[in-house]
Amino acid sequence: MNAAREEICNSKHIAVIGVSDKKFGGAIYKTLKKNGYTVYPVHPNKTVFDGDRCFPSVKELPEDVKMAIVAVSAAAAIKVTDEAIETGLTHLWFQQGADFSETVAKADKAGIKTVSKKCILMYAQPVTGIHAFHRFLARLFGKL
User: Fold this and answer.
1) Residue 96 contacts by C-beta under 8 Å, 6 or more apart in sequence?
2) Domains in the chain: how many in total?
3) Scanning 65, 79, 116, 123, which has the fewest C-beta atoms within 10 Å of its C-beta?
4) What is the DSSP string of 16-30?
């Protein structure tokens, strides 16, 4: 496993940016929470998500949160990356599904360790359900 993926998956303290009941960020949040991670939901228009205090931006996260899953559009990820640089986040996982190449390059240049083009739920243990099957296929075809 690449170092940044391993560090994020082993951290157990992760912000999930873009939580929503109608988007994949919400599923990521709920799955990581169920699996024992301490997760911090981030959404600009919510005060509570899944019974937990929701933070309006990266800037509002507790200082000890240094890693985040980015589950927003590529356009919205630009602001997220700027805030991550400003607040000292060390790791960003750009959830697969959008072209984050611009924001990944910006984060990398700022010294933030990044992961992109991967689904966190294929790596954060325990991997179950459809994600376990996808992980099996990725391993089989050398894409893990």
Assistant:
1) 116, 117, 118, 119
2) 1
3) 79
4) EET--TTSHHHHHHH
d(Cα 92, Cα 112) in Å, to the nearest integer?
Answer: 7
The sheet with strand 13-17 has its strands ordered as: 38-42, 13-17, 67-70, 91-95, 113-118
Q: What is the pLDDT of residue 112?
A: 97
Domain that holds residue 47: 3-140
What is the Cα–Cα distance from 43 to 131, expressed in whole angstroms? 25
pLDDT value for 49: 97
User: Whole-prediction pTM value?
Assistant: 0.90
At residue 136, does pLDDT exceed 70? no
Asked if 42 and 58 count as a contact pair (C-beta separation under 8 A), the reply is: yes
CATH number reported for the structural domain that contains residue 48 in this entry: 3.40.50.720
DSSP-derived 3-state class of residue 53: strand
